[in-house]
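Honest question from a wet-lab person: if I give you the sequences of every part of a complex, can you actually get the arrangement of the whole thing, not just the pieces? Trying it with mine:
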Amino acid sequence: MKRTVPLIIAIVAGFVLLIANFIPFAESWGLTAQEWFNILAVGAMILGGGNLLKLHLMKVSGQRKGWGYSVVTIVCFTATLIIGMFKMGVNPNPLTPDYAWSGYYLESGSGLWWIYQHMVVPLTSMMFAMLAFYVATAAFRAFRAKNTEATLLLITAGIVLLGRTYAGVWLFEGWLPESMQWLRFDNLTVWIMEIPNTGGTRAITIGIALGVVATSLRILLGVDRSYLGQD
Amino acid sequence: MRKRIPFITAVFATLALANVATAQAPAPPSDLSVQDTPDDSGKSVDLQWSLSNTDIFNPLLADVTLVDPSTIVATYSVERITSLDANGKEVAGEDSQWRVITEAGAGDSSYVDRTVELGWTYNYRICAVDNQGDASHWVEATTTVVPEMQIFDSSKAWLAIFMLVFGGFVVYFINEARSGKTLWVRKIAGLEAIDEAVGRATEMGRPVLFVTGIQDINEIQTLAGLTVLSRVAKTAAEYGAQIEVPTCRSLVMAAARETVESAYLAAGAPDAYQPDKIHYLTDEQFAFVAGVTGYMVREEPAACIYMGGFYAESLILAETGNFIGAIQVAGTAMPSQLPFFVASCDYTLIGEEFFAASAYLSGDPLQIGSLKGQDYGKFFSVLILVIGLFLATTVSLTQSTESAGFGSGALGYIKNNMLGSEGLGSFGGGNTDTEGDDS
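Yes, you can. This is the full assembly:
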């Protein structure tokens, strides 16, 4: 029963969405299914938040390694929750001034807006900025000419890298004959990105699309139940 | 005094006449046509018209500078009237009067009215309005329109056919497998490496980190990731290794717990299952990355397995895993993230391999049958691709663009009907221009 009911729900929801794609009468069914999912997801947020709090409270009470960070997490979580839920610093909507909580929760100048603008955005940007360094280290490792394929990759990457900058034009200025202009790195970059790169990406995309359909069929037919914890 | 009154009257009369002379209305639009939107549930009507001759966006105007500036079209006012409802009865009230439904901008020559009722009878009219608010005369549609619901979305007919053919292959090979026929599937190195990775973690006494991506449970990549998690958890339970599954979505956490618990049960080690090892971090993408990479640096898992939908965080995770010297296996269907995983991980499941993982790992003949069906579907797709390439090359070389030619007709049919949204349609129609087309 523990497996059968979720399996039936998964199969029914899958077929509903499939039918909704082809039958205009049923197109709203898909939206309804999506709304149900959203309601479930909101409910699950409580589950997730509860789990987060529980784990960190256990860590603090057991004074396990790094418990100080858990205190910071709990304080930040609770403060954000209270500021957001009670719409601290949010003015009532001008259209409904009698209702104190009718304002937009992320209104400029409000508590949650301040947290978002001055804490979430800079921290997120910082993490994203770190990507630049990770790209450099990954490229350093990937572009070593260990064999023929890696050498080809290195040459191609070099051309694209230079072709995306002014160096791609500057290197060939003044000496390359008109008939050989296609050899300029900026022109080669356009060709590499539009022909071999697009071709390769599309081949992968076609494979992915077929894989998605096959996986969906396995789930819809009940052949694959491993996501329910059953081989 | 008597002389001054006629003089003032004359001045006002002259000014009034001058005003009438300058208040010229813009030219009206023409050819307003209305039709029920095809392949819908009867909830919309398509309107089309030809642009006014004083609309500077009209491509038929030879020289826009010749248009009188005071008559340049600013908007098109579209109005609607309802005569009969779905039961054929006359409609009373606001709907029975002409009322504005939209003010389309200059240059717009179409509008979709999505505020109609199924089965009601509508008529439309349009006029051009300039910046002074002067309106042209109304142009009424020659016919009324009744929105109707179609049973089947014929624009997706070929998609349905492809799905049926592909589904047929999958079902056929599942039945073949059920009847006992042995089906061969090539080895996938990335999946073979999973046992090796878990074994290494066991030997080193360090945990296995499994990340199911940052998408929710309603995404197929997350489901595919959970199927791999099932196998990894079972192997970890058999080996006695510890598994850590941080999740980015609460529902994924709940599903992952069920998956891992069942895997431990199947491995005969239900007591070793620790639900707190499958925990929720945050929905925020980069906060999740910070949490996971922090764990990686602190605990130094011996194996990191990433299976699911990833975005920009893929490289941060994989490079951190590389930095701590973990054996890494990744699988995703995000083409833009694959190069990062390939560069940083020991093994990468590329696109379809990732979706094949569940069937491959289970060893279940029924599931492997579906993989065989997938291969035939791929062959079918490649066949259409090769035919399309051949036709496109032939048409391009012979410069045969007239639709009467078989090659260009077939090419147009593949592009517009089979791969486009014109449904089954008729052979030989549509655009066959091959230059600069990347569809």
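Two things worth pointing out. Chain A touches chain B through 61 residues (CB under 8 Å). The helical segments of chain A are 4-22, 27-61, 67-85, 111-142, 148-163, 167-170, 185-194, 196-220.
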